[in-house]
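Hi U.,

Before I forget, here's the chain from the pilot set. I'm dumping it here mostly so it's searchable later in email.
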Amino acid sequence: MIARRHLLAFSGCGWIGKSLGAPLAPQAPSFRSTVNLVLLDVLVTDSAGHPVAGLDRANFRIKERNRFVPIDRVSTGATNLSVGLVLDYSRSMIHSQARVVQAVEQLRTRLSPTDEAFILTFNERVTKAVPPALMSANVAGRWSSQLYKTRPDGQTALYDAIVQAASTLHSATHPRRAILVLSDGKDTASQATRADADRALLESNTLFYAVGLFAPGDLDTDPGTLSSFAHHTGGRAIFEPRLEFLATEFDRILAELRSRYVLGFLTSEPTAVAGETRRVHVYATDAQGRSLRVRTRESFFIAGEAK
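Structure:
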């Protein structure tokens, strides 16, 4: 999440805003406040991994820099999404293309008219296959036709694709933003580094989800990197080599994105230094006081120039 002094509704990461009674309209950035509101996008699940609904402020605790902080607000409910699909089109994907396109088309039908989406494909180059657009636009059939214009070939510039997707989401219509990566291998051709991709995800307020079309022990794969990106942003990495289950995994990810909470807490740090990253941890319990599983950002980021 990125920390700023203007208040935004929420995002896959989190934003700092003027606290207690601040309007939702953006304000000019400033980093001299002593009290700020940080907003976290949080998923809560039970021991079986099912999203838990119906929680309120009393069910959560937030720790910033090893001390508990008061929770200002909790909100729930489905919301509009801005989603970037990032599809591996390297040579190894050539026999999977038809199944991938079929699953992506099914995902398109699951998005609401007010959701926003775009598609990047990548081999050693990143291509904008479908530009960002609200689903209410006439996009029926456009996704598959665009995806069939290119045959998978070449190497795998995964980090470059993530950086470009995160950059595209900087101007997204909706504050809840997610990147969904589909790949069957590891990066072999990027100019960007893994650290560049990690930083881009943090700075763009983006949840990272991935479907790896391989088993974790397969050769020429890097499940650890996909898992790390997902863990740092509060998303999830899934490893499923069977293409017939791809559409089902997309459906699960979409349902999860619509089942998240937004928590707001007040940070009273006296200064905010541009480029600083601050650690945060969220705890949740049910009505009986039993611990629940929480996925959210590990930290939030101070953006802009200090004043």
